[in-house]
Write a structure and sequence with these properties.
Layout lengths: L1 E3 L10 E2 L9 E3 L18 E2 L9 E10 L5 E10 L3 E4 L20 E5 L6 E7 L13 E6 L5 E9 L10 E3 L17
Antiparallel strand pairs: 1-3, 1-5, 2-4, 5-6, 7-8, 8-12, 9-11, 10-11
């Protein structure tokens, strides 16, 4: 039996195919015992890790072929659909940063558009630990969830894309610069 998943090469950097020790995405399974036409034989599963942005909303074919004990051959194709998930904020600061009193924390930012659609805007949401606050307020942000001391702890900002929109299946670093109130950016300090 042969499992040909070579069409998944551009989908992810992490694809596993049964009976494929050399990693070329073509597995050849031998010594499966008696194989009879019409009787399923389990050999494992094709596992696909995180998809690349360029593969969003695409379908690829995995082909399985087998030869039965009587010499007859059969083939089956299985579609693998890679879902588009939309924007993912994937270049955020580490979850835990230690700050000195009065210190600032840079906010790197960027996202990947895992879809085939252009995005007019994205929403960035930040939850601030007690005692932290943004150094400036921006017109494109909403502050929610005041804590016991009355400080806003959740900030949601709508970041408008460049003209006309952010392209599909691309990764974009947001234009975060020094603290300013430019339209389409947010503060780099918290």
């Amino acid at each position: 039996m042969t499992v040909d998943a070579s069409a998944l090469e551009g989908v992810s950097d992490d694809v596993e195919v049964p009976c494929d020790p050399d990693g070329d995405l073509i597995g050849v399974c031998e010594d499966l015992g008696p194989v009879r036409r019409g009787v399923p034989v389990g050999v494992g599963q094709v596992r696909v890790g995180p998809a690349k942005a360029s593969a969003a909303d695409t379908t690829r074919q995995v082909r399985v072929t087998a030869t039965a004990g009587d010499g007859s051959r059969g083939m089956q194709r299985f579609p693998v659909h890679v879902m588009g998930t939309g924007p993912a904020f994937d270049r955020a600061p580490a979850a835990r940063e230690r700050l000195d009193p009065g210190g600032t924390l840079p906010l790197p930012g960027g996202f990947t558009n895992y879809s085939r659609s252009r995005l007019e805007a994205v929403e960035v949401s930040l939850t601030l630990s007690p005692g932290l606050s943004l150094t400036e307020r921006f017109r494109n942000c909403l502050w929610r969830t005041p804590d016991e001391e009355g400080a806003d702890r959740t900030v949601r900002c709508k970041v408008v894309g460049p003209s006309p929109r952010w392209p599909p299946t691309t990764s974009t670093s947001a234009p975060y610069g020094p603290p300013t109130t430019r339209r389409g950016s947010a503060s780099r300090t918290a």
